[in-house]
Design brief:
Elements: H1 9-24, E1 32-33, E2 37-38, E3 42-46, E4 52-56, E5 58-59, E6 70-74, E7 85-90, E8 97-101, E9 108-112, E10 114-119, E11 122-124, E12 131-136, E13 150-154, E14 159-162, E15 180-184, E16 187-188, E17 196-199, E18 203-209, E19 223-228, E20 235-237, E21 243-244, E22 250-254, E23 262-267, E24 270-271, E25 279-282, E26 286-294, E27 297-300, E28 304-308, E29 313-315, E30 320-322, E31 329-335, E32 340-346, E33 349-350, E34 358-361, E35 365-373, E36 379-388, E37 392-399, E38 411-422, E39 425-428, E40 437-442, E41 445-446, E42 454-457, E43 464-471, E44 478-479, E45 483-485, E46 494-497, E47 506-510, E48 518-523, E49 526-527, E50 535-538, E51 542-550, E52 553-556, E53 560-562, E54 569-571, E55 576-578, E56 585-591, E57 596-602, E58 605-606, E59 614-617, E60 621-629, E61 635-644, E62 648-655, E63 667-677, E64 682-684, E65 693-698, E66 701-706, E67 710-713, E68 720-727, E69 734-735, E70 739-741, E71 751-758, E72 761-768, E73 776-781, E74 786-790, E75 793-796, E76 800-808, E77 811-814, E78 818-820, E79 822-823, ...
Parallel strand pairs: 3-12, 13-19, 21-28, 30-36, 55-61, 71-79, 81-87, 88-92
Antiparallel strand pairs: 1-5, 2-4, 4-8, 6-7, 6-10, 9-12, 10-11, 14-17, 15-16, 15-18, 18-19, 20-22, 22-25, 23-24, 23-26, 26-27, 26-28, 29-31, 31-34, 32-33, 32-35, 35-36, 37-38, 38-39, 38-42, 40-41, 40-43, 43-44, 43-45, 46-47, 47-50, 48-49, 48-51, 51-52, 51-53, 54-56, 56-59, 57-58, 57-60, 60-61, ...
Length: 987
């Protein structure tokens, strides 16, 4: 057996012993079956595909007995073969064996294994590698949410998405036992394995049937869930105050006003009858809030507590303020008084004439403002501020942010801040300040004319130390911090006068000649002793350069090469350049020749009269200049440049950026691009001044011919197709693109309604004041989503939302929505019962609500109009109200009776006998917040005043003269006097 080799020596050793033992006991020879080799890594089966293969080997082949079968078995989902499933069988007698098979329709797991078992001899192979296997009983796209792509609900709510049950195999619900995976925004929703999902967040949701690691075709449509965002509802009171003074109603207003909202106002958490609009006039003290119902959602506002009688005052300053000399401190006060009066004081002394809410302070001191409410209640509030001068100032200047020593050519110094020093801290001074004066200093010396808050240094000769001196009224001048400036030195450009010819000399000149700089000349990088001026004369050839220095900065010039017997000539244009028809180009020759002469040529023909170093040309051609040196050496040199016309032109027009078709009421066309083109480049000639003629065309007809490059369309009457044609000498007319201009109509019009819909019928006529016969007017019903008529007006008999469209010149315009509603009401509602009693001499306010217009009748005679009336007479009252053509009637009766039941005592005995020692009034007026008791002395002075009176006057400290024992009283309810009289005090 030693001729068989394997890496697993222990395995074959055991097998060898087994075979020997088998032979020794007289049994048949056995075989070894290798580990099955799978032709797949996972089995994702379905009705459309379920065919898999594997191979295995066995040896020795000769030991396979007659009738042997190889049985291929599948484990359970955890890899256990306790209840193995037969996949296929084979009777092959040759190795290796290849078999194909289908997965059972029940597979669903991640750890299946396969083994091979033979029957003769009975041998089992090792288990295969683990693999996932699923049979997709449902393997096609399915729908959720009734195949609707969107669903919406209110913020804080939820909705349930579920797999649609079609009753057919197209739905996974047709198959029992399936589990699912749900995804939101392509991320799996943890724990969501059922056929439905309750969602509370917006996002894109979909579901798949859970086939483990197998990706199948069983997935749903995507449903976009939108969560309706709540409105941030708030209410505010008129004037943003929280009180009601003297019974005047305070208007409360909703922050959100929409005809689609349902409003309900509350006072002290109780709904206010009839308060169903976006505003409410609050006349009583209490806590108010608003609820809005919209789209099934209810939104609640903040609460506002409105209180009677309160005065609040404030101003725009702190307890201590700093006043800069020469400036003013504007004090503006605010208060919630209805009719306030004001009085200002300085150091407790009244300031004459200072009786307004605001005051301008120009001097230090302690200022007081007394605000007094003169209407309703008399209340005063005093505010105090201490205004003081600074004790000194700190001035700071700064350099421009890009300043670098020796690396910039200009620098701007500016006033950065002025800090006022006070006993309580530092306070920045607001800049600029016209009361201050400024003087810039260079090396502690004033700079002439430098008297602003900024100073620019743009010459290196002005390098040095800078400060700013600030003069402030009543203070000594203050100097800022010092800043050193070292600007980059100007780079010298060397030029030569003359040429080296024999013993001739050449003068080298620097473009920088300021005497404050230091100059050093170099020849072939060697310092020339004694050469310390802006110019240097030499007769030696070589490479010359100049170094200029000033302080810590230095700069090196260009290098000039001096050679014997040569001159140079070069043109400012390249060898080939474009010239545009109508353009003038200047050719300039640069030469080092001494006393040169110039001759200019075009296409080798001399140009008469042109003998200077420059020439202006307007034509294409080959231009040449010959330069001749006339002093010193006789030398000539020439330079050539060719000017060519473009091959073509293109022009593009466009409307102004803000133009919108059918919306804008005017437009401006202008040239967006204008290019000259040849084979090597494209050159923009936009905004040129070459004198071209621009012709603007509308619908093929010329509308403007001039040198103007823009065209204005001022009215929709000028709508059409526009193009621009440009005439260029020597070229065909250049035609632009076509731009369609379609301006919107600018007419103003009004929609109106007439009539009303009652519960018993009626009609409403919707109409417009449009008279333009070219407009097509169409009326629509939003509820019916249909056209209901055309023309200037239409009569409707059904409630709903209507609008009108105008069609003109390819544009359509929609009006606002007009709401037609049925006048539905329970009739006229009163704040009283149908029969009331009025005490003789008094009156009762009757308030009607529920309709638009009111007419009051007493015993069939008209007595008033409006929704309120004070009744004081007996009789039968009738109110007739209308809403449009709808009429409503309400009646009530009034009986007048004499008031004899309430008696207020007019005598008290203060002898401490426990009987009638205090003024005890009827219980109707005792311990009530809305009842106020005031008692006056015999001379009319208030000696007692209280609400919630406790029958506790007088106290032991009452003082009076026995000759004047009569006091007087008033009893008020809701700030209205209902009882008055006298009280006689007897001991």
């Amino acid at each position: 057996m030693v001729w068989k080799t394997t890496p697993r020596k222990l395995f074959f050793s055991s097998l060898f012993l087994m075979l020997l033992n088998g032979i020794g006991n007289g049994y048949a020879q056995t075989i070894v079956i290798g580990t099955p080799s799978l032709g797949f890594t996972q089995a994702c089966a379905s009705q459309g595909f379920n065919l898999y293969n594997l191979s295995f080997t066995f040896f020795p082949v000769s030991n396979v007995q007659a009738g042997n079968q190889f049985i291929v078995e599948l484990s359970d989902a955890s890899g256990n073969f306790g209840s193995a499933t037969t996949l296929t069988t084979s009777t092959s007698v040759t190795s290796p064996v290849n078999v194909s098979f289908a997965m059972p329709t029940t597979v669903a797991g991640e750890s299946y294994r396969i083994r091979v078992r033979s029957t003769a001899p009975a041998v089992t192979s090792p288990n295969s590698v683990a693999f996932s296997a699923y049979y997709a009983v449902h393997n096609q796209p399915f729908s959720i949410n009734n195949n609707s792509g969107t669903v919406s609900f209110c913020e804080g709510g939820n909705t349930t998405l579920q797999v649609d049950n079609t009753g057919t195999s197209a739905s996974p619900l047709f198959y029992s036992g399936l589990s699912y995976k749900w995804f939101r925004n392509f991320a799996e929703v943890a724990g969501a394995t059922g056929s439905s999902l309750t969602v509370t967040q917006s996002g894109n949701y979909y579901a798949i049937v859970d086939y483990g690691s197998c990706v199948m075709n069983s997935y749903s449509n995507i449903v976009t869930v939108n969560v309706t965002t709540g409105i941030n509802l708030s209410i505010s009171s008129a004037g943003n105050v929280d009180y009601i003074c003297n019974g005047t109603p305070r208007l409360l207003t909703s922050s959100h006003q929409n005809t689609g909202y349902v409003y309900q106002w509350y006072k002290d958490n109780v709904a206010i009858s009839g308060a169903t609009g976006p505003t409410y006039n609050a006349a009583q003290e209490g806590t108010y809030k608003l609820r809005i119902t919209f789209g099934g959602c209810v939104f609640e506002s903040n609460t506002i507590f409105l209180e009677l009688i309160q005065l609040e005052a404030d101003w725009n300053v702190d307890a201590t303020e700093v006043l800069i000399p020469g400036e003013q401190l504007q004090i503006n006060s605010v208060n919630n008084a209805t009719t306030p009066t004001y009085q200002w004081r300085k150091d407790n002394i009244v300031i004459a004439g200072a009786t307004t809410a605001n005051y301008t302070v120009t001097q230090p001191g302690t200022y007081q403002l007394t605000v007094t409410e003169t209407q309703g209640c008399t209340i005063s509030e005093q505010l105090t501020v201490v205004v003081q001068y600074p004790i000194g100032f700190t001035v700071t200047i700064q350099n421009s942010g890009d300043y670098q020593s020796c690396n910039v050519t200009t620098s701007t110094l500016s006033l950065n801040s002025i800090i006022a020093q006070t006993t309580s801290g530092n306070v920045p001074v607001t800049l600029p300040n016209s009361n201050f004066s400024y003087q810039w200093l260079l090396n502690n010396a004033p700079i002439a004319g430098a008297t602003g808050t900024t100073h620019t240094i743009n010459n290196a000769s002005e390098n040095g130390s800078y400060k700013l001196r600030v003069s402030i009224p009543t203070f000594a001048p203050t100097e800022s911090n010092a800043i050193s400036i070292a600007l980059q030195l100007p780079t010298p450009v060397l030029s030569a006068v003359g040429s080296l010819c024999g013993t001739n000399t050449v003068q080298l000149n620097s473009s920088v000649t300021n005497s404050v700089f230091t100059y050093k000349w170099y020849r072939n990088n060697t310092l020339i002793t004694g050469a310390t001026q802006p110019s240097y004369t030499t007769n030696q050839a070589g490479n010359y350069h100049l170094v200029i220095s000033y302080g810590a900065c230095s700069v090196t010039s260009n290098t000039l090469n001096l050679e014997q017997n040569s001159i140079t000539a070069s043109l400012n244009l390249t060898a080939t350049s474009i010239i545009i028809p109508g353009e003038t180009k200047t050719l300039t020759v640069t030469t080092n020749a001494v006393n040169p002469t110039f001759e200019w040529f075009r296409n080798n023909a001399i140009i008469s009269g042109q003998t200077s170093s420059s020439i202006n040309v307007t034509q294409n051609g080959i231009y040449k200049v010959i330069v001749t040196q006339t002093t010193g050496c006789n030398a000539t040199q020439e330079a050539v440049s060719e000017l060519v016309y473009p091959d073509s032109f293109n022009v593009t027009i466009a409307a102004n950026a803000g133009y919108l078709p059918c919306e804008s009421d005017q437009a401006t066309l202008s040239i967006a691009n204008f290019n000259a083109v040849n084979s090597s480049e494209t050159m923009s000639i936009l905004n040129n001044s070459f004198g071209y003629v621009y012709e603007w065309f509308k619908d093929g007809e010329l509308v403007l011919s001039s040198s103007t490059t823009t065209y204005n369309i001022a009215s929709y009457l000028e709508n059409g197709l526009y193009e621009l044609r440009v005439s260029i000498p020597g070229f065909s007319v250049i035609i632009s693109n076509v731009v369609e201009i379609k301006l919107g109509i600018s007419d103003d019009f009004t929609l109106s309604t007439e009539g009303a819909l009652c519960e018993s019928g009626g009609s409403v006529t919707l109409s417009s004041d449009i008279t333009n016969p070219n407009y097509i007017l169409t009326w629509f019903s939003i509820e019916n989503d249909s056209e209901i008529g055309t023309g200037n007006s239409i009569t409707v008999t059904e409630p709903g939302n209507y609008f009108m469209t105008i069609d003109f010149d390819g544009c359509s315009y929609s009006s606002n929505t007009m709401v037609v509603e049925i006048v539905t009401t329970d009739g006229i509602t009163l704040n009283i019962a149908d029969a009331i009693t009025v005490i003789q001499g008094g009156s009762t306010e009757v308030i009607a609500s529920g309709v638009d217009n009111y007419t009051w009748y007493l015993n069939d005679e008209i007595i008033a109009t409006g929704n309120t009336f004070f009744v004081s007479e007996a009789g039968t009252y009738t109110i007739i109200g209308t809403i449009g053509d709808c009429e409503f009637t309400k009646t009530f009766t009034v009986t007048v009776v004499e008031n004899t039941s309430i008696v207020v005592p007019n005598v008290i005995t203060i002898n401490s006998d426990g009987i009638n020692d205090f003024w005890s009034i009827p219980n109707e007026y005792v311990n009530k917040e809305d009842v106020e008791v005031i008692i006056y002395s015999p001379k009319g002075k208030v000696v007692f005043r209280a609400r919630n009176y406790q029958n506790n006057w007088p106290n032991s400290a009452l003082e009076y003269a026995k000759t004047e024992p009569v006091f007087y009283y008033t009893i008020s309810e809701n700030d209205e006097i209902i009882k008055r009289g006298s009280i006689t005090v007897i001991e």
